[in-house]
Amino acid sequence: MEGQDILYEVRDKVTIITFNLPDKLNALTGKQYLLLAKLIERADKEDTILTLIQSTGRYFSAGANIADKSLSNVATEELFSHEYWLNNFVSRNVYLADLFHNHSKVLAAALNGPVIGLSAALVSLCDLIYSIDEKKTFLLAPFSNLGLVAEGAASATLFLRLGWSKASEAILFARPIPGTDLTKLGFINKSYHETKFNSVEEFNKTVHDDLVRQFNGLYEPSILENKQLLKANRDTLINSASQREIIKGFNKWVEGVPQSRFAQLYQKDIKHKF
Ligand code: CO8
């Protein structure tokens, strides 16, 4: 049920958005990514300081749902048409990346596990990133393995946050970047590996409470204005990367390459490199 796939709650001046598809490792269909976009837009209008994105189960998110029925139920001629991909890829991805990039609240992610694909790109647009355990977390940008190119401004954010060399490993060769490296490079603000949690929910609550403690007592309008100032540094990079990526990605779908790579991955004929 759509309403249960991604949960929404406001608590202590924090909007909490929770991926709730643990059986699918929180892989999201096109429709669910659009729901996420709408929830981020709603969170932007709340009387809050922070928006926290968290998850359930063993993965934060396995990226786009490669078994998305809206792909398999499409007539062949439509599946290779400009119209289909302009509607189902270009507009949605640009909208989603733009909402994350321009979110007016402090945007935080609590990684309960690995993050892949478009979801990894969206996490890379967050201001603050926490991990339940760096040894159980990795970031995978598998675009080169899927016949795609970077999405969600990942070609800019990974370069900015990981540096040229690691970003090249991640994006060119679709290599997972281990959480330990993500911490060393400053991508992860804090790994909670020294804390014993009985559940992911306990970890999520700890991150929420720690964040509330961090902004408590500060002058709230200044926090949000400072967020805008920090964000302004990356505006040009993000916006130009997003535009370049989307046109290249669109051309790939019209060529039909990702459709067949997704099918091969689903049938386990190809795998990601670990
Ligand atoms: N889509 C759908 N289902 C998934 C996905 C996924 N991305 N990932 C995992 N699942 C499901 C599995 O099918 C399985 O379901 P079931 O129990 O019903 O068989 C369940 O989650 C558990 O998965 P595994 O048994 O495979 O668990 P493992 O620990 O062995 O492996 C992996 C975990 C490595 C994550 C593996 O599942 C995998 O490789 N998944 C695919 C990841 C992937 O390639 N995601 C796409 C990234 S690309 C992207 O996000 C941008 C594309 C933009 C597309 C826009 C379209 C319009």
From TrEMBL:
CDD domains: crotonase-like (cd06558). Its main location: other. It is found in: Peroxisome. It holds the Pfam family ECH_1. Pathway: Lipid metabolism; fatty acid beta-oxidation. One of its GO terms (biological process) is fatty acid beta-oxidation. Gene3D superfamilies: 2-enoyl-CoA Hydratase, Chain A, domain 1. Keywords: Isomerase, Peroxisome. One of its GO terms (molecular function) is delta(3)-delta(2)-enoyl-CoA isomerase activity. It comes from the Eukaryota. GO terms for cellular component: peroxisomal matrix. InterPro entries: ClpP/crotonase-like_dom_sf, ECH/Chromodomain_protein, Enoyl-CoA_hydra/iso. Belongs to the enoyl-CoA hydratase/isomerase family. PANTHER family: ENOYL-COA DELTA ISOMERASE 2 (PTHR43684:SF1), PTHR43684. This is 3,2-trans-enoyl-CoA isomerase.
